[in-house]
Amino acid sequence: MPRPARLAAAFAAAWIGPLLTHLVKLDFLLPVIVLALLMAVQRGVAGVLDRLVLALGQAFGALCVAGLLFSVWPWGLHPVPIAGVALSVLVALVAVTRPAWRTIYRPGARDLLAGAAALGVAGAAAVPFALRDLGGRIGIIAAGEDMARHIVLTDIIGQAGGYAFLHRDVADRFLSADVASGISNYPQGTYLTYAVLDRFVRSSDRNTDAITQASHVLWLYVATFAFLGLAVLWAVRRVAGPGATPLRLAPVLAVAAAWVYCADPVAVFVRGYPNQLMGMALAAILTGLVVRPLTHRGAQGITVALLVVGVSFSYHLFLPYAGVAALVWALRTGAWRHPGVVAAGVVAAPFTLITPILNLNAATAEHLGTAGTALPVDRPLTALLVLLALMATTARRGLRSPAFLRGLMALGAALTVALGLAVVQLVTVGSTVYYFEKTLHLAIIVALVLLGGLVRLVPRRTVPALACAVPLLLVIAATGGQWHTRPGATGLRLLAGIDRGSPAGGSDAVYLARQHPRSGEAVTVDLMSTPYRNWLGTLYASSLTRNYRYGHAWYAFLNPANPPKTLDDLDAIVAQSPVPVRFYVANAKASMLVLDPARPARESDKPGGDPVQFGAAGALTNIEAAEYLAARYPGKVQVIHGKPPERV
Fold first, then answer.
1. Does the N terminus or the C terminus of the chain have fewer Cβ atoms within 10 A?
2. Which pTM does this prediction carry?
3. 3-class secondary-structure state, position 613
4. Is residue 532 a contact partner of residue 505, using CB atoms and an 8 Å limit?
5. Which of residues 196, 218, 240 is at a domain's end?
6. Residue range of the domain that includes 554
C-alpha cells in the first residue's frame, strides 16, 4: 500500500477506533494506546523507561493545555473526540519521526531495576487502600481534610465538561460564595486529568453518582503517588548516568525508594494533596532532564516546556523552581540559541501564566502565611538528605562535571525557594508554617534525584555495595515525624495498619451519603459520636452528596480545633442556613457544646474522660441540642437517630 494511503488509513483509524471502543465499553484501552504511541515518537532517548516517564510527563502538560479546548468545544470530556484528536496528532508525529518499532519497548537491566523499585513503591501505597472499604480509604487521607475539596473540584470539572474557572455557573451550583473564587481558580490540571481518565475507565460521557465518582478519584490519587515514585526513581537512574552498573545502582535506588515511601513524600500522600504530588513528580522529571538533558535539543525543549506548564497547572508554588531549573538548562548548555527551544518557550509562556494570574490574590504574604494540615517535614532526615545530595554532586571532582554542576544549581534553586518563603513567614507571622513545609517537600524531591550521583561512590563488589545502603535504610525505617518522637517511619506505619487515619469519619461520611444520596435540599450534620469523627463525617458527606455548597458552613463550625461553641452559636448557624438541617444523632453521651467559651471545662479533659463527651457539664448533649432546635425551628430541623458504622 502506498505511503499516502497508509497515512489516510491511520487517520481514519484514529477516529473509527475510539468510536468502536466506546460502543463496546472498552474506552480504557485508548489511554494505553495513546501512551504507547507517544513513547514511540520520543527523540533523544533509547530506553523504554525513559520513553515511558517522558511520555507521561508530556501527556500531562499537553492535557492541561488541551483542557482549554475541551472546556469550550461542544463535546466536553467525551472520550471519543478526545481520543480522536490525540490519536490524530500522534499519527502525524509517527509519520514525521518514523520510529523503529522493534527496539522501542525493549527494556535494559537498569530499566528493569528502576521499574521494579517503582512497582514496589506503588504496591506499598496501594495495599492499605485495597484492604479497606470506601470509608476506610477516605479515612486514610481524611485528616488532611483538603481531599474533600479535591473530590468536589474533580466533580465540578466533570459536570462542566472542562475547567471550573471557565464554567463559573456550574461551580457556583457546587460552592458557597465565600469559597467559590478560591476553589474555582485553584490549579486544575490534576483534577481535569482525573475527570478525563474517569470517563475512559467507565466508557461514559458524563459523571456517575457522587459516591462512585469519589471512589475513582481515590484510586487515581493512589496512581498519582505511584507516578511520583516512578518519576523520582527514573530521575535517580538518569542522574546516575549511562555508565552506572546495575550493582552500583541498586543500593542507591533502594535508598531513594525507601525515602519516597517511608519518609516525607508519603506524608504528603496521607494528607490528601493530589496536586502537590503531581507537581513533585513533574519537578523530579524536570530535575533529571536538567542534569542530563536529552540528546535531541528540540525534544528536550518541548519536554521542558510541557513540564513547566504542567507544574503551573498542578502546583504553581513550585513554578519559580521550575522556571529557574529550565533557565539553568537553557543557559548552561547553550540551548537558548536553538530555534526550536525558543519557539517551545514562547508558545508555553502564555499557558504557564494562566494559573498564577487566576490566583494573584492567593499569592500575598497573608495567604502564604496561612496555617494548614500538612505534616511537618522531618528536619534531621532532610538535613541528612541534603548532605548526601551535596556529596553526590561534589565528591570525586564532581563539580568538574557540567551535569553535576547543573544539579547543584537546581538544588540551590529549590533551597532558595524554601528559605525565601521562610523569611517571608518569619517576618509576617513570626514562624514557619504550612507552605514552608511544602517548599521543603520540593527541596527533598530535588535532593532525592541528585542521589543518583552517589553511584560513583558505591563499591564495585556485591557485598560492600549492598552494605552501603543498609545503615541508611535502617535510619529511614526508624524515623517517625519531625523530631522522631514516635518509632517507625510514616510509610511503614501506614502499611502495617498502625496509622489508619480517621476511618470512623470516612465510614460515617459514606453511611450518611448512602442514606441521602441527593441531599441538595438539606444539609446533613453528623453529631453521632466523637468530635473529630463528626467533623470529618459531615465534611466528606457533603462531598459525597454534591452538597459542599451548604456543608462548608459546618466545616469550620464543627472543627474541634476551632474555638468552643455554645448553644447560641449552634442556634445561629441553624438560623442562617439557607436550607433545612438534618441532624444525625446516636450516642446519648455525645456532646460538643460548652457554657463558657473562655473556660470550656470539657468532660473529656477530666482524668478518665470519655472522648465522646467533648462538651461541658451542664451543657446540652448533642441529642438534647438537636431536639431543642427541632422544636424551635419546626420544618427546618430534622433529628434522625442513626446507626454509625461499627466497621472502621
1. N
2. 0.95
3. strand
4. yes
5. 218
6. 503-641
